[in-house]
Amino acid sequence: MVETVLLVGVVASVFVGFNIGGSSTGITWGPSVGAGIVRKTTAAAVMTFFVFFGGWTVGRNVMDTLSEGIITIDLTLTAGVAVLFFIGLGILVANIFGVPVPTSMTTVGAIAGLGLATDTLNYATIAEILSWWIVTPIIGLWIGVIIGRYIYPKVNRRVRIEKSDGPLLVLDRQGAVPKPAFGPNTTWFELATTVVVLVIGCYMAFSAGASNVPNAAAPLVGGVSGLNTDIAIVVATLAIGLGGFTIARRTMESVGGELSDIPLLAALFVMVTASTITTTLSWIGIPISLVMATVMTIVGIGWGRATRPITVREAVTGDLEDREIELGAIVAEEKEEAPTPAIGEKEPEEVLNAADLFNPRAIVKYVSMWIIGPSMSTLLAYAFFTVVPGIT
């Protein structure tokens, strides 16, 4: 019986990890794949390695919170399998609505529902987690505003991330030992920017592993009959990697299309900001959604870029002198000979007339899922464990 439950749990964990891999690989490597800097297969392979690295190190802190911190009793194997079922259900609903699934939030909701049904919920821990869920979007938004208003326009004037025709590096076979050499059109600047893009992608993959591996692994690490923590991490990593090599191929092509058409440089700012927020919170054991920080940073950069025509004083006092805030400033390429407008100066026409940075309806849908996802998993788990209390 125990072996059967464990097998079902492993299958459920693989299903959850598979879907996580499809979503997080697209978010992490989509911009780089779209720019032609890395191939899909290479992106999936690198993603798998760094997801394992993040889950094996920082992710353990999140696993402790999920398996021991949210409820005052140990999460048993049978209860963990049921939790994985509700996580999978949340993923299914999110996929139906076509938005990245807030897996960490759905996981916490399912375990919290168990705690409410069995009167074992650790209210202090859940209050801390909820407070970070409220603060994190605000942090991402305002960091994005600062980047978009003061940093991105200047960097965008000086840095052009472009991919030349032909391979980046080739093997020089003229000597006795083949050695790497520049491709036919490669420059030192292109090589340097490519390395930066790859390093940032690896960093985001690490962050994704720290936050997402515990979601698929923690429910299996329960009781005397559960999996060993190390084995559970390996199972979850392999499942995420499988998702990266398969369903993520389409995600990498389409990621960002609904929220934004931002260039690669802006995407790198988003990736660094979102990864740092997620990794930091994972380090202190807070289950957090990488998607949450990513989306709000995108919105912040766009809003900060769009509000450059007004000063802080004008924004606070409301004295705008008939000025209008224009969205979409981040997606237009400024002419090289045109200087970056100072704060308070009007943007060039080609910037003001660019397509909208983000779709407000898409933002509403994403934020709605951050509320609906964990709320639904909490209510369903509460109802289930109330009706079947013996499973815990």
Number of strands: 2
Which structural class best describes the helix and strand composition?
Answer: mainly alpha
Mean pLDDT: 79
Largest sheet entry: 2 strands, antiparallel
Q: What is the ordering of alpha helices and beta strands?
A: HHHHHHEEHHHHHHHH
Q: What percentage of amino acids are in beta strands?
A: under 5%
Q: Compute the number of structural domains.
A: 1
Number of distinct helices: 14
- Order of the strands making up the biggest sheet: 1-2
Classify the helix fraction into a percent range: 55-70%
| Poorly predicted runs of 5 or more residues | 256-260, 325-338, 348-357
Q: What best-fitting shape do the alpha-carbon axes yield?
A: globular
What is the radius of gyration computed over CA atoms, rounded to a whole number of angstroms? Answer: 23 Å
Distance between the termini: 15 Å
Family: Belongs to the inorganic phosphate transporter (PiT) (TC 2.A.20) family.
GO cellular component, one term: membrane
Subcellular location: Membrane
Main location: membrane
